[in-house]
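Example 9 (inverse folding). The structure is encoded as follows.
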């Protein structure tokens, strides 16, 4: 098969797995489910009763990346695979884009934007937490390496990873290509907190560094910059699978509050330093251009227009952002 196959590692997802499978089928997709054989609920029987393609697997540890990702990717039987969790769902734009494998040429793996969904005042929104923005090569929001050639990558067993060793070079899907994460809609706050604590037993620093995505109620709402644009297509599924809004005051211990603050600040610092490096690199390029090109202002504007036009035609946000930077530079002169 040439078209990419979606495979889904899952465990104890009986509360919502049926609704998600129905949604996949309405989208014309029949995913492969890799069920952890230690599931304690009806996940396996629900999938079998609905005629889904299911294989069982026992990972070497208590997380999907402990063998389930590699097993599912190889079992899918296609050149390209898209790994999604049981609480994630692809946008129509993603399904359409990846179906044409000509779009995937040039890289063995692709990073795709993930939307962390939440309910805010009965509106479906997603978080834009600052540490999720990558501006190293254009603007890429909350990119996740999820689409790859099954035999073209190296697999790793590391919690909170994509399950593969990130290649030195990988593609970034165009803006608007995304998938949604329903974790905050499907699980109550106490359930999500228990999951963070379980992961912290494996890697405490990383678990609390990533806690903003699963504990939005316990982090600064102003920093999430919640946005509802572009997630309307997920609302019907979100309403069908909405969990209770159970909340526990003071549910974080003092040590957990400290870890959450420290790790968030540390990651913020890393992102700021990376952004400063990118800005410095663009400034160096602009300085070199100034020295090399006569009639600086008009010449830089012409080059900026070329960058912007090429970016629009190719869908490259990197080219467009560089064009905008050069245009602003020409106006300063």
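The amino acid assigned to each position is listed next.
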């Amino acid at each position: 098969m040439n078209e990419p196959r979606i495979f889904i590692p899952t465990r104890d997802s009986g509360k919502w797995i049926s609704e998600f499978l129905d949604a996949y089928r309405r989208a014309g997709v029949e995913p492969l489910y890799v069920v952890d054989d230690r599931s304690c609920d009806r996940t396996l029987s629900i999938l079998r009763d609905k005629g889904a393609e299911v294989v069982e697997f026992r990972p070497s540890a208590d997380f999907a990346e402990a063998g389930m990702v590699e097993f599912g990717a190889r079992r899918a039987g296609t050149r390209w695979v898209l790994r999604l969790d049981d609480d994630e769902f692809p946008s129509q734009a993603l399904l359409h884009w990846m179906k044409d494998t000509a779009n995937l040429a040039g890289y063995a793996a692709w990073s795709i934007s993930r939307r962390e969904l939440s309910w805010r005042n009965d509106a479906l929104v997603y978080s834009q937490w600052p540490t999720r923005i990558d501006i190293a090569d254009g603007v890429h929001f909350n990119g996740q390496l999820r689409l790859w050639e099954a035999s073209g990558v190296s697999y790793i067993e590391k919690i909170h990873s994509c399950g593969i060793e990130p290649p030195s070079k990988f593609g970034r899907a165009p803006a608007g290509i995304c998938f949604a994460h329903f974790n905050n809609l499907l699980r109550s706050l106490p359930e999500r907190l228990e999951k963070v604590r379980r992961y912290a037993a494996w890697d405490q620093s990383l678990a609390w560094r990533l806690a903003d995505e699963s504990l939005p109620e316990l982090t600064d709402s102003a920093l999430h910059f919640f946005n509802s644009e572009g997630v309307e297509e997920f609302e019907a599924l979100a309403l069908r699978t909405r969990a209770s809004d159970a909340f526990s005051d003071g549910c974080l211990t003092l040590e957990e509050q400290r870890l959450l603050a420290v790790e968030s600040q540390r990651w913020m610092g890393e992102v700021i330093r990376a952004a400063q490096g990118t800005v410095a690199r663009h400034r160096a390029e602009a300085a070199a251009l100034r020295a090399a090109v006569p009639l600086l202002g008009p010449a830089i504007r012409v080059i900026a227009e070329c960058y912007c036009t090429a970016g629009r035609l190719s869908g490259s946000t990197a080219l467009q952002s560089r064009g905008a930077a050069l245009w602003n530079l020409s106006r300063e002169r």
